[in-house]
Amino acid sequence: MISSATATDETAAAPSRRRDRSTPAEALLARFRTVRNFTSQLSAGLAPEDCVVQSMPDVSPAKWHLAHTTWFFETFILKKWIPAYQPEVPQYAYLFNSYYNAAGDMHRRDLRGLISRPTVEETHRYRSSIDSHIADLLSRADDKALAEIEPLIILGIHHEQQHQELLVTDIKHVFSQNPLHPVFRERQIEVVPGKPSAMKFLDFAETIVDIGHDGSGFSYDNEGPRHRALIPAFALASRPVTNGEYLEFIEAGGYTRPEFWLSLGWTTVNEQRWQAPLYWNKSEGGWWNFTLSGYRPVNESEPVTHISYFEADAFANWSQARLPTEFEWEHAASDSEIDGNFVEEETFHPQTGRSPATEHRLAQMFGDVWEWTRSSYSPYPGYRAAPGALGEYNGKFMCNQYVLRGGSCATSRSHIRRTYRNFFQPEKRWQFTGIRLAHDHA
Ligand SMILES: [Fe+2]
Q1: What is the rounded distance in angstroms from the CA atom of residue 61 to the CA atom of residue 42?
Q2: Cβ neighbours of residue 322 under 8 Å, at least 6 residues apart?
Q3: Range 178-198 average pLDDT
Q4: Arithmetic mean of pLDDT, 339-344
Q5: Which residues partner with 208 through β-bridges?
Q6: C-alpha 408 – ligand 1 centre gap (Å)
Q7: Contact by Cβ (8 Å): 373, 405
């Protein structure tokens, strides 16, 4: 008799043996298809009408994400590696280039919502066509060609995962503008008994550490060069700030007291008339927020999200704390497992911590909400952007932005790293952004 454990092991081993027989090109193609299919899965419930709306300049229509990620593979791989490659629609090079000046002219970002053609159906055909070309190319590539194509495919895969996150956060903003409050994914409202664990602070001694990616596996160029950094003693909160804690800030007049705010933040609060995080509304019975599962009461135990750097910084000041630097965050995360509430969970919303935070353990470092750091997005010592169009991927944005760490409920688990540096301007609120507090060591 075969025990259930043995049977399970054999079941698990079978695909592994199959994988062993696959060639490197087949394995790469399988990875490519998995990520491309997940984009299709994310957009599957959207009507064509949902896919063309651009609700603000930062938001791109879902259709544009579907096409632009495809353009990336066509531009940087097919046009280079297939001799005499003829694009089916040459004008897509203009329509779906985002910001790569070296790849040619591009359509205006803030006008993407005016592009009713290609239709959504034609965009899906464009995706299928490029996918077929990639499959053909990989099936014919010799070892030498594959060695050069593989890093570009992997970059395209990670690029597509970034756009999957944007597709989710952009459709949230699009739906939030609709008084019908469309639902992206039906979810039961999670009822969490009791309160979240108390916020503790973990102490870290002064140290010199290596910061940045060590070169094993994929990383973006902005994660290197790996270099040494001095980190003075500090303390880091055991978990992110919750909605309930943020409500205390609101109720203490946080949005009306300039003493907590950076000057530019205070100007922004007044110009934008912010009184709460994006997507929050006060109505009878208290605060409600718009989620990808519809409009619902603010759950006080969940991590607060959709706040700007300015709000995160003001909250930290009100709390007599501060935001961590990106170096403190990376050092503190060195023992944290890369696990959490990622997009694969399909909650599409930060969740109340599932395991208790303690003074010995950091909780929710990965997933749920991107954590604002007080570090400006700047080049690491020795950084040089690569020549050519792909050198424009990260380096040219190293001005007037802040680094965020850890990924969110809209990030892929296989996309995030301890060294991953996300970045946004300090007034942006439409990503799943949150707060983890820090202190100088007392
Ligand atoms: Fe892009």
Answers
A1: 14
A2: 316, 374, 437, 438, 439, 440
A3: 80
A4: 96
A5: 230
A6: 18
A7: yes
For residue 65, the CA-to-ligand 1 centroid distance in Å is 8
Q: How many residues does the chain have?
A: 442
Taking a C-beta distance cutoff of 8 angstroms, is the pair 219, 416 a contact? Answer: no
Whether 438 shows a pLDDT value over 50: the answer reads yes
CA of 323 to the centre of ligand 1 (A): 29
Tokens of 95: 């329509």
Residues 223-255: pLDDT tens digits? 999 999 999 999 999 999 999 999 999 999 999
* Ligand 1 centroid, distance to 158 Cα (angstroms): 10
Q: 100 is written with which tokens?
A: 């790569």
Distance from Cα 178 to the centre of ligand 1, integer Å: 26
Number of Cβ atoms within 10 Å of the Cβ of 288: 16
Query: Could you tell me the CA-to-CA distances from 332 to 204, 299, 316, 438 in Å, in that order?
Result: 8, 28, 19, 11
pTM over 0.90: yes
Which of 18-27, 237-246, 346-355, 375-384 is least confident?
18-27
Residue 4 pLDDT more than 90? Answer: no
**Distance from the CA of 122 to the center of ligand 1, in angstroms?**
20
Q: How far is the CA of 351 from the centre of ligand 1 (A)?
A: 28
Residues 394/385, Cβ–Cβ less than 8 Å: yes
- CA of residue 35 to ligand 1 center, whole Å: 15
CA–centroid distance, residue 131 to ligand 1 (Å)? 17
Instruction: Report CA(160)–ligand 1 centroid distance (Å).
Output: 7
pLDDT at 11 over 70: no
Taking 80 as the threshold, does the pLDDT of residue 359 lie above it?
A: no
Residues around ligand 1, an ion, CB closer than 5 A:
98
Distance 163 CA to ligand 1 centre (A): 6
Mean pLDDT computed over 51-64: 98
